[in-house]
Amino acid sequence: MLRRIRAVLSGGASGVVGVSPREARGRLETGEAVLVDVREDEEWLAGRIPGSTHVPLGELRARAGSLPRERTLVVACRSGNRSALAAQVLSAEGYEVLNLEGGVRAWVEAGLPFVGRVV
Known about the structure:
The chain is of the alpha/beta class and 119 residues long.
């Protein structure tokens, strides 16, 4: 996993398709997609997008099998960087994945539903 993280960080997050907060919300509302929040436990406990699934980045490989393959995964973190890495990992595992552009910060700035606060 660390080798993959280093490779992504040194080469950028190429190949990851982004989605705006409003477009992501539309996909979530229609049931086309599921939101996966890869932030750490403390961040998740402080605040989250209602209905999102919490899988910390460090647990992603071990828990990826619990995520639905029949729906698109919208991956989120605070700003979009960790989720870009998560999107690459999940894409390599055969999932259809989109990265939430700007992360949960952008989601909140767009005035979309959020419980708690972003830390």
